[in-house]
Amino acid sequence: MGSRAWARMVAVAIAVIALDQITKALVRNSIERGGSDDVIFGIRFVNVRNTGVAFSSLQGAGALIGIIVAVALIGLLWYFSRNVGKPLIWLPTGMLLGGALGNVIDRVREGAVVDFIKVVDFWPAFNVADISVTLGVLLLLWVMERSSAPQRRA
After folding, report:
1. In this predicted model, what pLDDT tens digit does every residue of 46-83 receive, in sequence order?
2. Residue of 20, 37, 115, 121 marked catalytic
3. Hey, where are the domains in the chain?
């Protein structure tokens, strides 16, 4: 069971990284940097860079961000290795790993993360990796809560 969960987790991470990098390449090639295209009411595709982390916080703190991401990923993989038998644990772990690595690839290549989805004007732009991390956290909490809840009897 353990090796199957590791393989699934890696497959999810690779899929997230691929989708994230493909969508970012499409944006870099079709929208000029700083530009935008309206998609539907309230949603635009933009081509912006984010040197910070979630919701553009910690702007310009590259080394600190690198340390935080590395520690978080080590902690995530440690937790996964200790709980590899939990049902579905591989899914949020792969989503979190893939999302984090998708943004790390941008930081290494460009010094900043490519963000391109803009929903309403007051919300910061985000990308596929950000969506994966957000949903991964929520799903991980659900998996942890589900597995720690007492079993209900029929």
Report:
1. 999 988 766 555 666 667 777 888 899 999 999 999 99
2. 115
3. 2-147
